[in-house]
Amino acid sequence: MELFIFARFHARQGEAEAVAAALRDVVGATAVEPGCVSIGAFRSTYDPRLFYIHSRWVDEAAFGAHGGMPHTVHFLQRVEPLLDDPLDVTRAQLLP
After folding, report:
1. What are the residues facing 42 on neighbouring strands?
2. Exposed/middle/buried for 85, CB within 10 Å: 0-12, 13-18, 19+?
3. Which CATH architecture does the domain made up of 3-91 adopt?
4. What b-and-e string marks burial along 30-54, b requiring 16 or more CB atoms within 10 Å of the CB?
5. Would you kindly state where each structural domain of the chain is located, as residue ranges?
6. pLDDT over 90 percentage in the chain
7. Buried-most residue among 22, 47, 64, 90 (CB within 10 A)?
8. How does strand 3-10 pair with strand 50-57?
């Protein structure tokens, strides 16, 4: 069953542009992964330090494989020190 991912990132003061750059980099690499249906990065219109990734995957296994990809591992190592809240990732399915 298709899987939807919502990830929330809140940048530390002064780190918003670094978070935006990291998101741009990982989205391009992720978009071509097998099993990735779509992916996009977003910035809040109310809080310029708040970002989201929304992605769709063919199934849980495809998203699980994504977690071990070198670009994903590098992204997490790069972005986590830039955040003032823990990374928040929600897995969801479309309501029938």
Report:
1. 52
2. exposed
3. 2-Layer Sandwich (3.30)
4. beebebbeebebebeeeeebbbebe
5. 3-91
6. 98
7. 22
8. antiparallel
Residue 30 CB-half CA count within 13 A: 29
Q: Is the C-alpha dihedral spanning 40, 91, 69, 57 positive or negative?
A: negative
* Average pLDDT score over residue span 32-39: 97
- Which pLDDT value is given to residue 31? 97
